[in-house]
């Protein structure tokens, strides 16, 4: 967890205040504190928060080559930070038109044609090959031409390599016939600075009429913003010098000056929307220069801003664009309390009790303040790496009520703000910190939690086996009892629909749990087990083949397993029953911390699990003898009416019946099924548990102080 530190750049909204808790005599706001909790701590107070939508920090990376913005009322822009004292408003759009923004960079110019449809067709091939590209519209001596560029690339050499493979990517030599692809770069000449955008645009027309590229650019200045014309897109100094000679020869009245290397600018170009049907133009901004200025985009009339590349979500506040560590950084800055409304709405449901929402609001507020400036120019991300934040569209009224009803309230102990971790479901018992991190945190202890609501109303799935031996889970809605049973007394069912998926585990996930096979109407099968559909409270994962787990497991073993994984067991549990140690073939599987076991075993929902080994079972023999059978042991023989009729068990499957009449499938080769409860690391507040406690009559303060043991709720 990063410390909160003074503001950086435009983080001027962060201020500090001293909160003395219940030390302040007669402060009604602190009447909710236990008398034993008299804490004095310097707590941060924030007006605006900065949320990273796309950013590259080295430790965290979620990037996009370009971002597409729009607002129903139109967009304005202005520079902030760097040289600029204030961001003068630049009118980007007046309606719901899109603005696309990217960084100036090296690119491969693959095609230039007057035929827009031809260029779009080539662009579609690049998109299919997962190559980033854009289409620019240029005016060349009074006529439009369209340029297809791939990229961006960080170096000229990388762009040159892209030029070489262009014909292979487009898969059609005639799409670039008659045109010699080349590298373009971020080097320009300044052809003049003007008082208005119209004046700059007129100069750009003069230069383009002569056959040269020219674009209006917004320049960051001490007074805010100026308008310039930048010409040429050279990839090196030699190209830049040659371009100057050509322009001077054709237009001797145009004075060309070097672009200030310490100045931020945004080129304004025309581009084609590659995804649109037909020829649809959009504004293209290219952010460049060596300055530290940032381009802040805001909506007119306080409307929201849609970001297409972020699942087309709409955000309150402004969107800041800048270059950070060589990548486009996209930051959403908005009022802190409004951010919390979206977080609560993103994390929980509008149908949940208000007291549960309030508990989430206080935890979310504390968490965000605790982070400080965690990501160089942003406090948090919009992902569950921090806390879910899905913009304005998800907001609901009771979330706003929860934020307002707890305004300024945070969780603290004698050391200041705590780290109020939360997650979906604890499976009935929260984790002790030692079970997750391997070390103790006083306020993170294992406590009971009413999490069962997550499986309420979930369907039953049947575990079935077909006559051909195929086995898996089928949703109970698609199977009916025939009323008949097999010799072992197990019921025959049949499918009630066509093309019904049968899966490894009882839940639908076409990526993580695809159909093993399908059954059609009338197909008959035996039901030998059943389970509730996997949910946040209880779940099943697997079966996983030992050979496929072995590579991961061997990486965590002192002595790698050469043969098959015959035995996998939870060898040590923590206070809540979570696995903190697992052994494979008797060897301890070492992880950096206990919760890493989830990742090791194919991203399990939690570490509160048991392991079922399908190749291992216990045989009760004559005279009370017991034998534990595994694939590594000698063959099992089944006796008939006399010893002479004993036959070895053959085939890859066998079904065993225990003394309680329960049937279990076993395999000749071991596979491993994980059955568990809980969803998440288990530390701190269970969201489903908070709902359960609220339904039992707990208020949000009691909920929070149940999950965070010994802490106080104080006001900023």
TrEMBL record:
InterPro entries named in the record: Bact_Sporulation_Assoc, SpoIID/LytB, SpoIID/LytB_N, SPOR-like_dom, SPOR-like_sf
Origin species: Paenibacillus rigui
All residue ranges annotated as the Sporulation stage II protein D amidase enhancer LytB N-terminal domain in the record: 325-411
Gene Ontology CC terms: outer membrane-bounded periplasmic space
Database matches in Pfam families: SpoIID, SPOR
Residue ranges constituting the SPOR domain according to the UniProt record: 112-166
GO annotation terms (biological process): sporulation resulting in formation of a cellular spore
Name used for this protein in its record: Stage II sporulation protein SpoIID
GO MF terms held by the record: peptidoglycan binding
PANTHER family reported in the protein's UniProt record: AMIDASE ENHANCER, N-ACETYLMURAMOYL-L-ALANINE AMIDASE-RELATED
């Amino acid at each position: 967890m990063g410390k909160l530190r003074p503001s950086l750049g435009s983080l001027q909204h962060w201020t500090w205040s001293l909160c003395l808790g219940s030390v302040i005599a007669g402060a009604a706001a602190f009447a909710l504190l236990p008398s034993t909790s008299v804490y004095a701590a310097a707590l941060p107070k924030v007006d605006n928060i900065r949320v990273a939508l796309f950013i590259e920090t080295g430790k965290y990376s979620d990037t996009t080559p370009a971002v597409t913005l729009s607002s129903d009322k139109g967009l304005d822009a202005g520079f902030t930070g760097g040289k600029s004292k204030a961001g003068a408003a630049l009118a980007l759009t007046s309606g719901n038109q899109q603005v696309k923004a990217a960084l100036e960079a090296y690119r491969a110019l693959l095609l230039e044609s007057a035929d827009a449809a031809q260029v779009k067709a080539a662009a579609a091939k690049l998109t299919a090959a997962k190559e980033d590209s854009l289409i620019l519209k240029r005016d060349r001596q009074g006529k439009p031409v369209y340029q297809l560029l791939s990229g961006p690339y960080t170096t000229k050499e990388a762009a040159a390599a892209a030029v070489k493979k262009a014909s292979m990517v487009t898969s059609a030599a005639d799409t670039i016939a008659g045109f010699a692809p080349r590298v373009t770069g971020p080097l320009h000449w300044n052809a003049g600075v003007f008082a208005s955008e119209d004046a700059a645009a007129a100069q750009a027309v003069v230069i383009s009429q002569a056959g040269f590229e020219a674009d209006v650019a917004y320049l960051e200045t001490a007074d805010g913003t100026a308008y310039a014309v930048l010409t040429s897109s050279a990839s090196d100094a030699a190209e830049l010098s040659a371009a100057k000679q050509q322009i001077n020869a054709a237009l001797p009245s145009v004075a060309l000056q070097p672009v200030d290397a310490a100045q931020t600018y945004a080129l304004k170009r025309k581009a084609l929307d590659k995804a649109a049907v037909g020829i649809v133009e959009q504004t293209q901004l290219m952010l460049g220069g060596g300055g530290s200025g940032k381009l802040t985009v805001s909506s007119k009339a306080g409307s929201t801003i849609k970001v297409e590349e972020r699942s087309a979500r709409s955000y309150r506040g402004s969107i800041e664009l800048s270059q950070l560590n060589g990548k486009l950084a996209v930051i959403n800055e908005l009022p802190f309390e409004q951010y919390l409304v979206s977080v609560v709405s993103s994390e929980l449901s509008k149908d949940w009790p208000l007291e549960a929402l309030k508990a989430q609001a206080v935890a979310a507020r504390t968490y965000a303040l605790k982070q400080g400036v965690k990501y160089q120019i942003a406090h948090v991300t919009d992902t569950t790496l921090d806390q879910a934040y899905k913009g304005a569209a998800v907001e609901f009224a009771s979330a706003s009520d929860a934020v307002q009803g707890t305004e300024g309230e945070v969780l603290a102990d004698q050391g200041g703000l705590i780290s109020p971790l939360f997650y979906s479901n604890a499976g009935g018992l929260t984790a002790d910190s030692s079970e997750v991190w391997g070390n103790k945190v006083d306020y993170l202890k294992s406590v009971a939690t009413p999490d069962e609501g997550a499986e309420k109303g979930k369907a039953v799935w049947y575990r079935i086996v077909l006559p051909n031996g195929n086995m898996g889970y089928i949703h109970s809605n698609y199977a009916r009892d025939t009323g008949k049973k097999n010799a072992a007394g197990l019921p025959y069912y049949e499918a009630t629909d066509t093309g019904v998926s049968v899966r490894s585990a009882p839940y639908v996930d076409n990526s993580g749990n695809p159909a093993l096979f399908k059954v059609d109407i009338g197909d008959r099968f035996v039901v030998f087990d059943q389970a509730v559909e996997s949910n946040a409270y209880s779940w099943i994962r697997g079966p996983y083949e030992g050979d496929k787990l072995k590579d991961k497991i061997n990486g965590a073993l002192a002595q790698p397993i050469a043969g098959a994984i015959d035995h996998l067991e939870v060898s040590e549990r923590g206070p809540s029953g979570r696995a903190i140690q697992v052994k494979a073939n008797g060897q301890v599987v070492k992880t950096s911390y206990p919760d890493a076991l989830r990742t090791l075993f194919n991203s399990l929902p939690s570490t509160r699990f048991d392991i079922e080994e399908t190749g291992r079972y216990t045989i009760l023999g004559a005279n009370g003898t017991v034998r534990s059978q595994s694939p590594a042991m000698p063959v099992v023989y089944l006796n008939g009416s006399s010893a002479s009729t004993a036959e070895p068990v053959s085939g890859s499957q066998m079904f065993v019946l225990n003394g309680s009449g329960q049937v279990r499938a076993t395999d000749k080769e071991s596979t491993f099924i994980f059955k568990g409860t809980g969803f998440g690391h288990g530390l701190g507040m269970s969201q489903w548990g908070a709902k359960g406690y609220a339904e039992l009559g707990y208020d949000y303060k009691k909920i929070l102080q149940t999950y965070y043991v010994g802490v106080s709720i104080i006001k900023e």
